[in-house]
Amino acid sequence: MRLRSSSLCNSSSIGDLSRRNSALIFCVFEMGRGKVELKRIENTTNRQVTFSKRRNGLLKKAFELSILCDAEVALVIFSATGKAYQYATNDIQSTISRYRDSVGIPHLYTQHSRTVEFWRAELNNLRKSVQSLEEKLNHLAGEDLSSLGMRELKQLERQLKVGVERVRTRKRTVIVEHINLLKKEQRALLNENASLQKRLQETGLNSSNLAEGSTSGPFRRL
Prior knowledge:
Number of strands: 4
Strand order of the largest sheet: 1-2
Shape: elongated
Helix content: 55-70%
Strand content: 5-15%
Structural class: mainly alpha
Low-confidence stretches: 1-32
Oligomer: single chain
Largest sheet: 2 strands, antiparallel
């Protein structure tokens, strides 16, 4: 802090006023202006108070600028907790659109644009997936192996061994199921054949009994 004497605070006047012991010395004390270090305020309470004061000041300055200079102003502030504060002379979306037009940024936030961008990204992802699946299918078929290194070839060999074993296991299961089905059909045919033979025998016996009854009855033909 340094002392700056005003015109009313020269040496002679100070001597005169001191001798009279009744005077008020007009002296101006001013702080030396140094560089203020900008850094995050660690104290939470002080940080919130500073944010509130400077936010209000910034919003006030934006309002004054729009009134004094007939300017279109849009201001958005987010606090550390995520709370939003904004000021806009017009609709803020309209101002943002005007800004995008002025700097050449495409409008990506309309519903139509979002839909187009979404499906374009989905299409690219699907193309990549199809290409990857086609490459894997070719590798499993033993094609296009020149781009694979030793590690990829060993991994492919393990996959093929596992796949072949699974195919063989499934093949054995299908064969056993088919044999069991044939045996079941065979038993059904044997049972049906036995049933038919039994019915045939019963039919033959009935025919013999009828023939014997007709020749030995009271109305036997002479």
